[in-house]
Amino acid sequence: MNHLTTDSVYRLQFKTAASSLESVAIPTIPDYHRLIDYVTEVRRGRRTQIRQFWRICPVESTLGLEIIEVVEQAAIASSRWMGRGDKNTADHVAVEAMRERMNQIHMRGRIVIGEGERDDAPMLYIGEEVGICTHENANAFCNPDELLEIDIAVDPCEGTNLVAYGQPGSMAVLAISEKGGLFAAPDFYMKKLAAPARARGHVDINKSATENLKILSECLDRSLDELVVVVMKRDRHKDLIREIRDAGARVRLISDGDVSAALSCAFMGTNVHALMGIGAAPEGVISAAAMRCLGGHFQGQLVYDPAVVKTGLIGESKEDNIARLSEMGITDPDKVYNAEDLASGETVLFAATGITKGDLMDGVRFFHGGARTQSLVISSQSKTARFVDTIHMFDQPKSLQLR
Ligand SMILES: O=C(COP(=O)(O)O)[C@@H](O)[C@H](O)[C@H](O)[C@H](O)COP(=O)(O)O
Ligand SMILES: [Mn+2]
Ligand SMILES: [Mn+2]
C-alpha cells in the first residue's frame, strides 16, 4: 500500500462484489490485462473478483511536499516567539499555523496524538478530523470515499520551554500513517531507550544502563568513555545519571526536547549514542515513527506508578492509572513497545522543522522579507531521509541569503 509518499507510483482503484471501492499501489501503469495480476500479487495471492476497474491515478502526489509546509509554517510561527519567555504563545501560534496549513491538504486525516488528552484543547485535539476532504462541503470538490484515511500524530511545538528561552533542540514535528498505524499513546510518561541502528535489538530497555552501555560500546566499536548518552535533567533521573557516569560513559543533560535526542541517535556525527530515561509517551510515538523508518533502536514502556514519576501527566494512584489505561484498551501496562509497535503502519511518514537550532536541523532564520528553514522528512516507503532547506518569501525580499 502506498498512499503517503511523493514517489512516482500509481494507485489502482477497483470495486469488488464485496466492497465498494478499494485500491492497491502499483509501480507503473500496466497493460489492462495485467491489472488482475497486479491486484492478486499485491494481495499476496488472494485472487480478487474485480467487478469494475475504477481508475488509475498517481498516489497522493503532493502529500509529502505539503506535509513539509505544515511543519515549516508551525516552526516559523513559533520562532517569532523564540526568546520571549512566553511558552504558551510559542505553542499556541504553532498549533494554529499547523492546523491551518493541514486543513488545506487534499486528505482525510485524523489526529491521534495531539494537543493533550485532558486539556480540552480547541485545536488539533485528539480525534479532530483534518484535511480539506473532511470539511462539511467536501463532496463539492473531492470524493472523500476515494481517499485513504490517515492518522496523524502532532507536536506543533516540541520543546516549548526551549523556544521560550532560546535554547537548542525545539522543532515542529508530526508523524503520519494509514488509519491505525500509530499507537494512540495516552498522556502518560514513558521510559525510553533509543540507540543507533547498529545496536538495534542488542540493547534492551529491560537491561540496566550499565549492561546497555557495554553492549553499545561493542556494537558501535567505541570505548565506554567515547559514548554520550542524552538524559533529561530531572530529579527522577538522578540514579540513572550516576549509573551512566559510573559505567564510564558521558551524559549530555537536556532540559526538554527528547524527540530531538532520539532522532540524533540514528545519525552518525551527532555525537549522541543513546537516549535513556523517562519523557512523555506521545513524544515516544513520534520518535518511534522516525526510528522505525531509519532502522534505529527505540523501545518505550509506559510509566504509571506515581512513585516513579510524581509530577505532571499521570494521576496520584497507581491503581487508578492502571484502570485508566485499561479503559483505553491497554491491558498490559508493563508492555515494552518497540518502534514497530508504536508506529506499526505499513507506510510511515515523519516530518520536522527546526524551530531553534538542533543537532540535525538549523532553527528558523529570519531576514528582511522572509525566512529560511531546515526540515527533515523521512519516509518508510521510499526509504529516504530528506533534509529540506527552504527560503520563504513573505513579501518582496530585498535580498535572498545563500547561506
Ligand atoms: O520536553 C518535552 C516537552 O514537550 P512540549 O510540552 O511539547 O514542549 C518533551 O520532549 C518530553 O518528552 C516530555 O514532554 C517531558 O519529559 C515531560 O514533562 P516533564 O514532567 O517536564 O518531564
Ligand atoms: Mn513535546
Ligand atoms: Mn508541544
From TrEMBL:
Top-rank taxon, per record: Bacteria
Transcription regulation found in the keyword field: no
Keyword Hydrolase on entry: yes
Enzymatic reactions: beta-D-fructose 1,6-bisphosphate + H2O = beta-D-fructose 6-phosphate + phosphate; D-sedoheptulose 1,7-bisphosphate + H2O = D-sedoheptulose 7-phosphate + phosphate
Keywords in alphabetical order: Calvin cycle, Carbohydrate metabolism, Hydrolase, Manganese, Metal-binding
Oligomeric form and interacting partners: Homotetramer.
Similarity-based family: Belongs to the FBPase class 2 family.
Annotated function: Catalyzes the hydrolysis of fructose 1,6-bisphosphate (Fru 1,6-P2) and sedoheptulose 1,7-bisphosphate (Sed 1,7-P2) to fructose 6-phosphate and sedoheptulose 7-phosphate, respectively.
Protein's UniProt name: D-fructose 1,6-bisphosphatase class 2/sedoheptulose 1,7-bisphosphatase
Source organism: Halomicronema hongdechloris C2206
Lineage: Bacteria, Bacillati, Cyanobacteriota, Cyanophyceae, Nodosilineales
